[in-house]
Write a structure and sequence with these properties.
single chain; alpha+beta; Alpha-Beta Plaits; 18 helices; 16 strands
C-alpha cells in the first residue's frame, strides 16, 4: 500500500515540477525539449569538444584545441579568397562598384543619423532576450535588463557620443567563440562552425545604428524585392511560395523550367570591409554613419573557449584579430550582409527569376524553346560567377545544384552547367530553406524526411504522458510535434504522400487525450 502511495506522490510531484518549469520558463520550447529528453530516456549529446585532429595527430588538450579552432576560424576567409579568380583591380569585369552603379542608376539621399533618446535605449534593453550567457566582460543581458532603469540614461549619453564621433567603442569589439558541431567526424575541425558571444552592451550600440539604417533603407526603398532574409514580414514560407508559384505557373504554361540552387562558401565570413563601406557610401550611408560602421568592423578580436572537464577553469586561445566578414551573432551583421549582396539580383534578373534568403541564392529559368533556355542559363551563370568574383565571394560547386522541373520524371532536361571548367551537380531534389524540393514538386522526399522525426515525437510523448497534465502535454505537442509538422505544410499538405503524416498526428492526439486507437479524432 505504501508503495502505491509513494508512487502517486512521486508522480504528482513530477507533474507539478514539470508544469511549473514550463509555465515559468522564458523559453518554453527549450524547457519542453529538456523534459522530453529526460523522461523519454534520451541522453543529451555532449557538445563539448573532447579531442581534435591537429596536423594529423589527435589531441585532447583543451588549450591546444582552443588555439587550433581560433586559427582555423580566423583563416576561413583567406582560404576562400585564395580560390577566387578576381585580382581586385579597377577593370569593369571585376570591380564591384561597376556592378552596383549598373544595378541602380539613381542616387540616394544621405542618411539622417539622429541622436538616440533614453526611451529608445530603454526599449532596446527591454527587447533583448534575458539570457544568462555573457561575453568576455561577464555581463549578461539578464543583468543588463535588471539594471535598465539605472543605466539607460548614461548609456544613452555614450551612444550619442559614439554616433557624433563616428566611433564604435573598442572594448565592445571582443567576441568569445564556441565551436558547434555540425555533422560528420567529431575530430575533424572543418565539421564545426563558430558560435559568437558578444558583449551585451555591444547589442545596445548596434541596435541604435540598426534602427537608423533600417529607417533609411525602408524610406528610400533600397533593399531589393527578391531578398527575403532578415526582413520584417518576409518569411522562409513566403520565399518558398515565390519559388513554387513561379515553377508551377511556368509548367502550366508548358514552358521548360529549371532552377539553380547556389551554395556560397563562408559568405558572412568573406565580406570585404572596403567593398562593403564603398557600397554603403553609394546607398547614402555616408559621413559619420560610414565612419561608425568602419570603426565597428575594423580592429575586432576573438578568442575561442573550450570547456575543460579536468579543471574548474575553461581553456581559452589567445586573442586574434578579425580581418574580414561581418560579426557572427551580431544585430548589425545580417543587415550589412544584405547590403553587400543587394545588387546581385539586378545583375541576373533580366533572364531569370532570382530568389534570395540572405546568402541562399536560388534562380529559376523558364523558356518555351530549349536553345533559348540553355543560353539564358549559361549567360546568367557566368554573370553570377563574375559578380561573386568581383565581390570576393565563392560558389561551392560541390553543393550547388541544378534541377529540371517537370510534370514527370522522364521528361528531364539534361544540361551541363559549368564555369571555369567546374560543373555543378544535376539532382532530382534539393533542400530549399529547410524544405526538400523535388523535380516534380510531389513533396514525397520531404515527407519521407519528416516521418521519422514525427514518429520520434510520438514515442517521446507516450513516454512523458504519465508525468504531465493534459495542458502541459498540449504545450509539448505544439513545441515539438506541431513545429515539425507545420513547417511548409501549405506546400506539401495536399500531396497524396501526406496521408501518413496525418495518421501520425491522429496517434499523438489520442496520446494527449487518452483516447483509444480506434476512437475518432474529429471532435478532439
Amino acid at each position: 500500500m505504501y508503495c502505491k502511495i509513494l508512487s502517486k506522490v512521486i508522480k504528482e510531484a513530477k507533474q507539478n515540477n514539470y508544469n511549473s518549469q514550463i509555465l515559468k520558463s522564458n523559453n518554453k520550447i527549450k524547457t519542453t525539449w529538456d523534459i522530453v529528453k529526460v523522461e523519454s530516456g534520451k541522453k543529451s549529446v555532449n557538445e563539448d569538444v573532447q579531442s581534435l585532429n591537429i596536423e594529423g595527430k589527435s589531441t585532447n588538450n583543451p588549450q591546444a584545441i582552443a588555439s587550433a579552432f581560433n586559427e582555423y576560424f580566423l583563416s576561413l576567409a583567406e582560404k576562400t579568397y585564395s580560390n577566387n579568380n578576381n585580382n581586385n583591380n579597377n577593370n569593369n569585369n571585376n570591380n564591384p562598384i561597376y556592378y552596383l552603379s549598373r544595378a541602380f542608376n539613381n542616387s540616394f539621399p544621405n542618411i539622417n543619423l539622429k541622436f538616440s533618446t533614453r526611451k529608445e535605449i530603454e526599449n532596446i534593453i527591454k527587447s533583448l532576450k534575458p539570457k544568462n550567457s555573457h561575453g568576455y566582460d561577464e555581463i549578461s543581458t539578464k543583468l543588463l535588463k535588471a539594471s535598465s532603469v539605472y543605466i539607460s540614461s548614461p548609456l544613452n549619453h555614450l551612444c550619442n557620443k559614439s554616433l557624433s564621433s563616428g566611433t564604435f567603442p573598442q572594448r565592445l569589439k571582443y567576441a568569445v567563440m564556441k565551436p558547434l558541431f555540425k555533422k560528420g567526424e567529431r575530430k575533424c575541425i572543418s565539421n564545426y562552425r563558430p558560435i559568437s558571444i558578444l558583449t551585451s552592451f555591444s547589442k545596445v550600440f548596434e541596435k541604435v545604428m540598426y534602427n537608423r539604417l533600417l529607417e533609411h533603407l525602408n524610406s528610400n526603398n533600397i533593399l531589393v524585392k527578391e531578398q527575403f532574409g532578415f526582413r520584417k514580414d518576409l518569411t522562409t514560407e513566403k520565399a518558398t511560395y515565390e519559388l513554387t508559384n513561379d515553377i508551377l505557373s511556368a509548367l502550366n504554361d508548358r514552358l521548360i523550367v529549371g532552377g539553380i540552387f547556389c551554395d556560397l562558401a563562408k559568405a558572412f565570413d568573406c565580406v570585404n570591409h572596403d567593398i562593403l563601406l564603398s557600397k554603403l557610401n553609394f546607398y547614402g550611408i555616408t559621413g559619420k554613419a560610414n565612419e561608425w560602421i568602419k570603426s565597428y568592423l575594423k580592429n575586432r578580436y576573438q578568442r575561442v573557449e573550450i570547456n575543460n572537464k579536468n579543471s574548474s577553469h575553461n581553456a581559452f586561445s589567445n586573442w586574434g584579430i578579425i580581418k574580414h566578414g561581418v560579426p557572427q551573432g551580431s544585430i548589425l551583421g545580417p543587415l550589412l550582409f544584405l547590403l553587400y549582396i543587394n545588387d546581385l539580383s539586378k545583375t541576373i534578373n533580366n533572364k531569370s527569376k532570382p530568389i534570395l534568403y540572405a546568402d541562399d541564392t536560388s534562380i529559376i529559368f523558364k523558356n518555351s524553346k530549349f536553345e533559348n533556355f540553355k543560353n539564358d542559363i549559361n549567360i546568367v551563370f557566368e554573370a553570377l560567377n563574375r559578380w561573386f568574383e568581383a565581390n570576393l565571394l565563392s560558389l561551392n560547386f560541390d553543393k550547388t545544384h541544378y534541377i529540371s522541373f517537370t510534370t514527370k520524371n522522364n521528361h528531364q532536361i539534361d544540361l551541363d552547367i559549368s564555369y571555369a571548367n567546374k560543373l555543378i551537380c544535376k539532382v532530382l531534389d534539393t533542400k530549399f530553406l529547410g524544405i526538400h524540393v523535388d523535380s516534380t514538386l510531389s513533396w514525397k522526399i520531404h515527407i519521407e524526411q519528416i516521418i521519422p522525426k514525427l514518429n520520434a515525437a510520438c514515442y517521446a510523448m507516450r513516454s512523458i504522458k504519465p508525468f504531465m497534465s493534459q495542458e502541459t502535454l498540449k504545450m509539448v505537442y505544439h513545441a515539438y510535434f506541431h513545429s515539425i509538422m507545420n513547417y511548409g505544410l501549405i506546400f506539401w499538405g495536399n500531396s497524396s504522400h501526406s496521408v501518413i503524416i496525418f495518421k501520425i498526428q491522429k496517434n499523438i492526439i489520442r496520446i494527449i487525450t487518452g483516447c483509444r486507437s480506434r476512437d475518432s479524432c474529429r471532435e478532439l
